[in-house]
Structures are given as C-alpha cells and as structure tokens.
C-alpha cells in the first residue's frame, strides 16, 4: 500500500499540533511537527548569538545543524530541545528565520524525505500548498486572534514561562504578518483544503470533524 499524507495548516495558536498529534495516533501514522523544526533552527541561531538579520550568518549556522524527530521529542545536534524551543525568545524570531529561503529549502527537503518514506500527518503553514501539494487530505485550521492568543498564553503559563496575554497576542499578530507576507511559500489555505474554524470548538470536536472526512 502506498504512503498516505495528511496536511494540516494554519496560523499560530489554531490548534494544529494538538490536533495533528491526535489524528496521527488514531490513524497510526507518523506525526511531523514542522514548526518545531524551524524553532530548532531559530534556537540554534540564538545559542550561537548570530545576527538574525544577517542571512549569511544564519545560513552558516544551518550547515552545522542536525535535527531529529524522535517520538514527541525534537533533538538539536543530539540534545532534546522540546521545551527550549517553546520559549518566548524563539517565538519572537522563528518567523523571521523561517522565511529565509535557505532555511526553508533545507527543512522542506527533510520533510518531503520523511513523507516519501512513510505515511504521515504533517502540520505547518505551507504543507498543503508547498511541502506536500499532493497530500491525500488537506485541512486548514483557523481561529480568532483572541482565541489563539488565549490558547498560547495558557500553554506558556502551564510550562512556567513568564509572559502576558498582551505580549502573546502581539507576537501572534506579528507572526501572522510575517508568515502571510513572506515571498517563499506564504501562509495561505490550499484551494483543495477543508477549512475548519476552531473558535469555540473543543479538541474532540475538531478531531471528529477531521476524522469524518478521512474515514
């Protein structure tokens, strides 16, 4: 049987990762968190104290970056950085790093290679439009900015990160702008993707909606 790909796209805080993990578990597929991959590159740049506005410095760091996805964890050059990549400093810069063509080229190559080798549920911002344009199933999750900020704020509070709801909302608005305006593979709904507004919906309700289409 050939491999099956499920693409789940959407802006920050729309619930992509949470939903994608559950779908992958239910359908016994491999979950790929592409956002975590870009976060890992951003963390590496911050650790190396490079000028994130200097593309050549970022590209140099990229050459010395090894990313591995093992289970629900992400490893950067052999170190588990699953918690570190969720910090506010990474939130602030990840969209700037992710929009660089050299970074996207390397990450997309890795993502496509994984999808070629096995059936996957992959979430991100350009999966259905760019990374896996021929995915068997495509979904685009969205929610109001207020709901997305609230979710991300509560998530960071649970992890012990010190931030305010206003700061989180500002970060998300900035990421939305960068993601939708970037030149290469901007955030947009694929024409053949199913739109699901998750505002006011529970995780179970969103999962049920997606499974109804897949089954």
From TrEMBL:
Tell me a Gene Ontology molecular-function term this record carries: CMP kinase activity
Q: Which residues form the Cytidylate kinase domain?
A: 6-215
Q: Which residues bind ATP?
A: 10-18
One Gene Ontology term from the biological process aspect of the record: pyrimidine nucleotide metabolic process
- InterPro entries, per database record: Cytidylate_kin (IPR003136), Cytidylate_kinase_dom (IPR011994), P-loop_NTPase (IPR027417)
Which domain of life does the UniProt lineage start with? Answer: Bacteria
| Entry's localization field | Cytoplasm
Q: Which UniProt keywords apply?
A: ATP-binding, Cytoplasm, Kinase, Nucleotide-binding, Transferase
**Gene3D superfamilies under this entry?**
P-loop containing nucleotide triphosphate hydrolases (3.40.50.300)
Q: Does the keyword Secreted apply?
A: no
GO cellular component terms, A-Z: cytosol
Q: Which NCBIfam families match?
A: cmk
PANTHER family, per the entry = CYTIDYLATE KINASE, CYTIDYLATE KINASE/PANTOATE-BETA-ALANINE LIGASE
Family statement drawn from the similarity comment of this UniProt entry: Belongs to the cytidylate kinase family. Type 1 subfamily.
What's this protein's name?
Answer: Cytidylate kinase
Which organism is this protein's natural source?
Geosporobacter subterraneus DSM 17957
